[in-house]
Amino acid sequence: MKKHHLFMASLLLSVTAPFLASCHDGDEGAEQTTTATVATVDVCNLLTQAEVDSLFGKAMGAGRVDAAVPHVQGCVWPASGVANLIVQVLPAPADVHKSIDPGKGYKVLDLDGMSRQAAVAIQQPNPQYGLSEGVAILGIAKGDYMLTLSPVMLNIKEGSAQFENLKKIAAAAAQRL
Q1: Can you name the residues that pair with 124 across neighbouring β-strands?
Q2: How many CB atoms lie within 10 A of CB 102?
Q3: Which of 129, 147, 156, 157 is at 20 to 30 A from 120, Cα to Cα?
Q4: What is the pLDDT confidence band of residue 37, given thresholds at 50, 70 and 90?
Q5: What is the pTM for the complete model shown?
Q6: What is the pLDDT of residues 69-97, one digit of tens each?
Q7: To 5 degrees, how large is the angle CA 38–CA 42–CA 48?
């Protein structure tokens, strides 16, 4: 398996694992999510074409629906080939910060100034695996939902104009939920 495929698979698993783990009957302190049924959402239309294009810096065309696991609805860009932008809607967690934390190799920051509970996981550089620093996951809660944007391989750096653009796009997409 290629390194970028392995990275994307582990990223997707790390985002969805807390929700799958919280589905068991035991009470071992698993993070609680809302119990509301997540209605079907047209995730590909939560972002405008202009917003998607602005993240890539070029025209990307429509996204492709991607539903990798139960209770998670998604859309990926580009529509064919390896996904560089993954947008997902899932049940809202009690704590966005904890739910998007992939673990070692990432720093997670709460995003102050956004109108909702929001956080970002930033991948730390690891030259051994060819990984550079950049945004891995941005999560924002709205009611019974959490929206995540994962701009994998877009190399969006914390504090950059692209980072501010990503935050603006996430806030607008959450508003459309």
Answers
A1: none
A2: 17
A3: 129
A4: low
A5: 0.79
A6: 888 999 999 999 899 999 999 999 999 99
A7: 135
